[in-house]
Amino acid sequence: MKKIGTSYLHHREVSAQEAVFRVTGLRLRECSRKVEFIPVGENPCRMSIPLKDLEKQQSYKSSNRKRSNSDSEDENDDENKIWMNNIVDRYKGRPHIDMFIKMCLASFGSEYSVLRESQLPQKINEETTFKLDGNLGHIRKRTRTSPAVIKYPRFSQETSPEKYFQSILQLFLPYRHDEQLKPPLFNTYENFFTCGRVKFTGDNTLTSVKEFVIKNMADFVKTGQELEDAENQLHETDPKEDAWCELCPESELNRRECIDEGKVTSVIEEDLSEATIPDLNNEKSSSSVGTNLLSVSLTKNEIIPRLRSLNVKQRRILYKVRDWCIQKANGKTPKPLHVFITGGAGTGKSHLIKCIQYEATRILAQTSENPDDLTVLLTAPTGTAAFNIHGLTIHSALGIFKSLSPYYATSSEDKINSLRTKLENLQDLDY
């Protein structure tokens, strides 16, 4: 027990996916574009320098004080600095060249990546690699890959207007100091956004802050207001419980049927009667085609949940076929109805066909004197398709030979008479 308890303390259970990931060194997630997070706002979260490095800085500072025998508090910014450099600090320290003058923070984070000292090549390409001011390292333009996708905190313009305008000014207006985002003449960020004008180095013309920010936002923000309205609507109104049924009704119905079948724990064994025991000595040929036509239909309790789960398009098709059957049952002669049902896997084709068969059989059964007569025939081109809709293949239903040539594929008179008798009251053929 001690060994078992120790193993539980020092080991943990992993899934099969994680085991494969650890053994083969695969990545759990990989995408074609890099994702760059840009911290914006009044007081964004920042990573601090490790405690060991801070202790080294403190010891180095105290040793210098002892050597100089001075208690003055004139200290370097690097010695007082406790925060690690982030993308905003590197953006402020970008080179003073023409291509970086009108570049905003969003474009800087998307188009350039930070290089470590170990990643610097011996021969630096001056067209793509640049050194930052203030010993902040080097950056390189993303040329082999697509620009990165930027992520940033999003504030509401209605509930937090000051934070909203501050964030968009930080992202889409070029600046080198925080004071440039709200000059002393303006009281709020919103006032500077709507009424402010800026002049860049080398350009004597004044540019509207609002026009410049909106122009840069158009490259990164796509349908932002529509997405925000949809999110607010989702929070205000509860999500639909049957939303998945509207998208894939057949898959949802199969899932519920599997759950109901799993709840059954008792198996009822029934005695096999002599009628259910197959006759192994039956010499009758099993290749008789087109003589056994069964009208397979669902019960009322089974069909009601299926009818309720139909979406708008499926209901239109069902009502169209239902109107045609009603006209036929009333003695009218409507034109033949041709409906082509198509769609991807799991969209509800078989689900709709079963509902159509039930409604057509229920309505057209009134036109026949004998309730056992076949009025609706459900067929399919292949056996797999016929099995999914509980129907018959077209060859089996109509006695068509698929292995013989047309010259020899003629049915006998007995089979033709049998088909004629069974299909004399047929009103609807679903294929």
From TrEMBL:
SUPFAM superfamilies: P-loop containing nucleoside triphosphate hydrolases (SSF52540)
Transmembrane residue ranges: none
GO terms, biological process: DNA recombination; DNA repair; telomere maintenance
Family annotation (InterPro entries): DNA_helicase_pif1-like_DEAD, P-loop_NTPase, PIF1_helicase
Entry keyword annotation includes Phosphoprotein: no
Catalytic activity, EC: 5.6.2.3
Region of interest (Disordered), ranges: 51-78
Keyword annotations: ATP-binding, DNA damage, DNA recombination, DNA repair, Helicase, Hydrolase, Nucleotide-binding
Catalytic activities: ATP + H2O = ADP + phosphate + H(+)
Pfam families (alphabetical): PIF1
Cofactor: Mg(2+)
GO molecular function, one term: ATP binding
Domain DNA helicase Pif1-like DEAD-box helicase: 310-406
Family membership: Belongs to the helicase family.
Protein name: ATP-dependent DNA helicase
The species this protein was found in: Mytilus galloprovincialis (Mediterranean mussel)
